[in-house]
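Bumping my old thread because nobody answered last time. Still need a sequence for this structure:
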């Protein structure tokens, strides 16, 4: 089977369907094979209504009393009905699926699969799938042979554009006889394999074909579990092998040695108006030792919100400048770049460091670029404006990238490439790269450090500076705002403090039960008529957003109603309250980032999580209320939501874990050992890589190589 063939080579997929699939990222046969079912319906495990228990269930019955209503408050469509079998009846409800009211024939039986739980004072089946019973059950042909019209485990695929689950069933049916021809991928599965590394017992010749076939045509839950285990391992192995090979490539590069000079470091630290925490000291030492090496540092500095990463970066930058080299500090937004500049300038300029800020609105860019090229500027801080093609450095030896997941691989690589042309080379035969320090305030679980960031060394600042008060977090029902929240807001503003008010969307959307920025700002102006209230969102022009944030930072706005555009990098010490509407619609990592917008000054700060649900608070909200430890919350969030949703936006390589779960520590540990061993073998015997062409091409999208070759 040619996995690289276009999907149009499959029976039933024409040009129009192929275009739809391409929009969903399905271009080749391989892409389609790895488009796995989101769930399975087990029609053989259906139970009688009288025997139902809460949880995921399958029930066979007839449906009646169908009706659709539209709620007044949010404009939601709610379709309800009654499912009946010979033992009883249950209520069924669908949200925003008005077509359900006309979908069913009340005289025919259907299988309903979904969650049966106690909600709104009664047990009900919520948003189940529905399959006509005659499409599933046993049939008898003219020779008396019996067969199921559908497998006992029916794969259910996520709809992609106009391509529904049943169409994917048909595509795979057309490929069914070809599954045995799927080529192996992992080391240890080829007949003429010369690698001596061990492999797990579930990795054998034909394991890949077996796993993919069992995923799309399972007969038992055991088959599904075994298939998932192999495919999860395969995915993790690719990711970890990419990280190991990246690390090896990085070790072949040369960097300028930036020697540690204790007197310079002491001079800077003694000038600080505070003492470094032990965690800051350890992270600083890790970085300074890395910069003394002849190979480029490739380190990730993790620090919870307000932990003091910038000061650690300043010490590293000062060491590079004292050695006669330049430093580039890259930030994702003009606001954050400006804050870094204003924070570092009073620390470093008195020590003779020449600094400049270059963002989109900078007027004298040409002069700054001229000084950069001549070496008159030691540290440049800015946004993507500093990686334009006409920006050259005299001797760039250290790159510091803040909130590095906000930059694409190409953008970071562009900055690193500038070193190849402009660094002071002592030996022209070597490829030079700058030392790279990436920073993030997003706490990263240990399992993610091993996989997505496996090619980086990691330092963690897990202490807050002394004097910082913990932020008090409270969950409030929406109806409690008037009695409990509004008086608190009034009191904080009266004490000359400011408020963030976070909303989920910009405009009102009748199909979404979330609060809009514009409507909430108007509502709050009526509640607090004497206060200055403005709104902020991502669709505004950059200059307009910067102007509003500057006025908020200057204390000219009392309540800023905003989307999550303020999530990272905004530093307003005078803000003491943040209100997060529809809090259950956010993940823990994002809630924690938003909470970090307050508690940055000396005043006691508060975070209010407003729930619009009539049910009990979710586990996420309860954990937020209990803990302010970002690393603990990151681990909890990973278990609840999975890595795809939390870290899908991270562009360190490309996290595309559609199968594996980063909570499976034993499997990660196994894949990590195997990947390290294979990477070593590939390095010692590069000819063996030629046998694994698909594996080597497949890992390329995971890699963020710092090589300049």
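Sorry it took so long. Here it is:
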């Amino acid at each position: 089977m040619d996995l690289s063939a276009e999907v149009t080579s499959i029976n039933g997929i024409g040009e129009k369907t192929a275009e739809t699939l391409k929009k969903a990222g399905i271009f080749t046969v391989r892409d389609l094979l790895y488009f796995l079912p989101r769930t399975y319906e087990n029609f053989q495990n259906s139970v009688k209504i009288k025997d139902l228990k809460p949880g995921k269930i399958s029930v066979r019955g007839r449906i009646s009393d169908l009706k659709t209503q539209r709620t007044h408050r949010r404009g939601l469509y709610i379709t309800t009905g009654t499912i009946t079998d010979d033992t009883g009846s249950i209520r069924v409800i669908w949200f925003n699926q008005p077509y359900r009211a006309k979908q069913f024939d009340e005289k025919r039986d259907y299988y309903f699969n979904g969650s049966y739980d106690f909600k709104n004072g009664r047990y009900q089946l919520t948003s189940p799938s529905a399959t006509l019973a005659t499409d599933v059950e046993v049939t008898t042909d003219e020779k008396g042979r019996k067969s199921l019209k559908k497998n006992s485990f029916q794969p259910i695929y996520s709809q992609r554009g106009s391509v529904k689950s049943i169409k994917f069933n048909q595509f795979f049916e057309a490929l069914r006889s070809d599954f045995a021809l799927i080529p192996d991928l992992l080391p240890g599965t080829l007949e003429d394999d010369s690698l001596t590394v061990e492999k797990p017992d579930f990795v054998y010749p034909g394991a890949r074909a077996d796993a993919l076939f069992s995923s799309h045509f399972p007969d038992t839950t055991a088959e599904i579990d075994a298939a998932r285990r192999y495919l999860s391992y395969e995915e993790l192995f690719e990711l970890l092998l990419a990280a190991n090979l990246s690390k090896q490539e990085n070790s072949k590069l040369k960097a300028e040695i930036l020697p540690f000079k204790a007197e310079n470091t002491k001079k800077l630290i003694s000038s600080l108006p505070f003492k470094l925490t032990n965690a800051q000291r350890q992270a600083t030492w890790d970085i300074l030792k890395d910069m003394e090496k002849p190979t480029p540092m490739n380190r990730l500095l993790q620090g919870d919100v307000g932990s003091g990463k910038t000061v650690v970066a300043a010490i590293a930058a000062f060491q590079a400048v004292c050695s006669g080299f330049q430093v580039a500090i890259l930030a994702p937004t003009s606001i954050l770049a400006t804050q870094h500049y204003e924070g570092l300038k009073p620390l470093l300029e008195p020590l003779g460091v020449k600094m400049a800020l270059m963002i989109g609105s900078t007027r004298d860019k040409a002069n700054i670029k001229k000084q950069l090229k001549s070496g008159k500027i030691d540290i440049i801080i800015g946004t993507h404006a500093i990686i334009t093609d006409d920006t050259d450095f005299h001797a760039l030896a250290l790159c510091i990238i803040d909130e590095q997941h906000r930059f694409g691989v190409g953008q970071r690589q562009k900055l690193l490439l500038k070193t190849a042309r402009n660094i002071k080379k002592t030996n022209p035969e070597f490829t030079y790269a700058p030392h790279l320090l990436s920073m993030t305030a997003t706490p990263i679980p240990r399992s993610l450090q091993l996989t997505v960031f496996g090619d980086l060394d990691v330092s963690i600042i897990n202490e807050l500076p002394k004097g910082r008060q913990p932020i008090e977090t409270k969950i409030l029902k929406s109806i409690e705002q008037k009695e409990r929240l509004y008086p608190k807001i009034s009191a904080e503003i009266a004490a000359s403090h400011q408020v963030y008010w976070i909303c989920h969307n910009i405009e009102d959307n009748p199909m979404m039960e979330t609060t809009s920025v514009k409507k909430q700002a108007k509502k709050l102006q009526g509640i607090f008529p004497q206060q200055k209230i403005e709104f902020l969102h991502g669709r505004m022009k950059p200059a307009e957003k910067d102007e509003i944030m500057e006025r908020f930072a200057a204390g000219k706005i009392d309540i800023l109603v905003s989307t999550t555009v303020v999530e990272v990098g905004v530093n307003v010490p005078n803000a003491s309250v943040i209100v997060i509407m529809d809090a259950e619609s956010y993940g823990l990592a994002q809630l924690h980032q938003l909470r970090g917008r307050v508690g940055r000054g000396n005043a006691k700060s508060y975070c209010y999580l407003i729930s619009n649900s009539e049910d009990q608070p979710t586990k996420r909200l309860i954990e937020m209320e209990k803990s302010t430890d970002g690393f603990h919350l990151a681990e909890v969030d990973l278990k609840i939501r999975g890595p795809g949703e939390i870290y899908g936006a991270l562009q360190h390589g490309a996290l595309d874990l559609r199968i594996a779960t980063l909570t499976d520590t034993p499997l990660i540990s196994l894949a990590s050992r195997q990947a390290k061993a294979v990477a070593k073998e590939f390095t010692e015997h590069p000819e063996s890589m030629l046998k694994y062409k698909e594996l080597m091409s497949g890992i390329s999208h995971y890699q963020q190589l710092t090589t300049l070759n």
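The two ends are 34 Å apart (CA to CA). Let me know if any region looks off to you.
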